[in-house]
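Appendix B, Record 12. Input sequence as logged:
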Amino acid sequence: MPLLDHFRPPIYPTRPWESFHTRWATTIADALQQSLPRRYFTDVFIHLGSRIEADVAEFERPPEPEDESPNGPGGVALQTWAPPAPPLTMPGTFPDEIEVQVRDMIDDARLVAVIELVSPGNKDRDDARGGFAGKCAAYLQKGIGLIAADIVTTRHANLHNELIRLLEADDKYLLADDVYLYAVAYRPARRGAENLIDLWPVPLTVGGRLPLLPLALRGAPAVPVDLEKTYTDARERSRL
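Logged structural output:
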């Protein structure tokens, strides 16, 4: 089923891209759940916008009555501690997250692979692009397999290239300057005395098909991720 433009009319804003990306991520997770060995499980994480889980006002709210004593009525109340005023406060970047995580239940739910679906917010500012690239670099440097899929048509930035430059790799690993839609699989590996990252980059086009890519599981063989099939399933479920 051909790739649609989910970020411009006639699809957007009648059918929000956030809804479709959420459904696509869930469809990918469900498909992986059927093919992964039983020791692994998938989780979907969606976080959009600049707000983190709790702000300072929540941390500094007065304690609720049930919070005052761990022993119930008549118990000894715990004194609420507050840190001193910070001498410095700097701007922060909290990237959008639309990701499927694969974890190993035998090894304390260790994270072994991640699939990232790029959002417009990941591409719209230098700090957002750097934050996304930094997160991907951290996964790879821990040996965690990664797939990144970018179908965002309204921001002309290439986050794969941001990642390559952050890793200070050779320019031959960059995608062409005019490629803004793509999917890339990354497999961290150690061969002999070398630390390596295998790459499977695929440029995408609106109206084209999506690829089948390998998702490397840390410490285990790779598994296939059929982006075309999961995208088609998500479109059918969304009636697009």
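The chain has a mean pLDDT of 89.
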